[in-house]
Amino acid sequence: MLQLHPSEIKDLVLNGGVIAYPTEAVYGLGCDPDNDTAIQKLLAVKQRPWQKGLILVASEFSQLVDYVDESQLSAEQLEFAFSKWPGPFTFVMPIKPHVSRYLCGEFDSIAVRVSAHDGVRALCQALGKPLVSTSANLAGEDPALSGDEILNAFEGKIDALVLGALGEQRQPSTIIDARSGKILRNGQ
């Protein structure tokens, strides 16, 4: 398995590669959100049903506007999300009609986060777009907390491990429904 720095992954990801990378709390698996084949590969590696949907992480909200239908959110709802970003808050927002079912699952929304993690931000900046994000584990198992765990669990199954350190968070991000304000998962 390749071990790369964030600045070295652009071509690999844009050509359909699946990567593992450190996030705020755990290692994540990611790929190009505009490549259904890559998303299907990621779902197969993780053994996750497509119906559950996935998260997109970005370095700034402007990277998410091709996926999120802002017209279905009020200025106050958007301002609330913006007040939490960048940071460990994931918001479930309405999707634009063209968004792949593999990203949003059986929902009319998608989970999005503007990350404060330097490594995640560097990945998204290198790509010039958001990155699919899901915890690096098989469905139902604990997520990986080290590069060694990634190598043991995913050798031969993913294309690269992005080098870097985990953030300071001890829990996954808090997930909030942007329309209702309801906390769907309290991560802090």
Query: How much beta, percentage-wise?
Result: 15-25%
Largest sheet: 10 strands, mixed
> Number of domains in the coordinates?
1
- List low-confidence stretches: none
Quaternary organisation of the protein chains = single chain
Strands of the largest sheet, in order across it?
1-8-2-3-7-4-6-5-9-10
**Annotated CATH architecture:** Alpha-Beta Complex
Total helical segments: 6
Short description:
26% of the residues lie in helices and 22% in strands.
Please characterize this protein's 3D structure.
The chain has 188 residues and is an alpha/beta fold. The chain has one domain (2-185): DHBP synthase, CATH 3.90.870.10. The mean pLDDT is 95. The chain is built from six helices and ten strands. The longest helix is centred in the first third of the chain and has 11 residues, at 36-46. A hairpin with a 5-residue loop joins β9 (174-177) and β10 (183-185). Strands 1-8-2-3-7-4-6-5-9-10 form a ten-stranded mixed β-sheet. The radius of gyration is 15 Å and the shape is globular. It has helices spanning 10-14, 36-46, 75-84, 101-104, 118-127, 147-154, and strands at 2-4, 19-22, 27-30, 55-58, 89-94, 109-114, 131-135, 160-162, 174-177, 183-185. Helices cover 26% and strands 22% of the residues. One of its GO terms (biological process) is tRNA threonylcarbamoyladenosine modification. Belongs to the SUA5 family. TsaC subfamily.
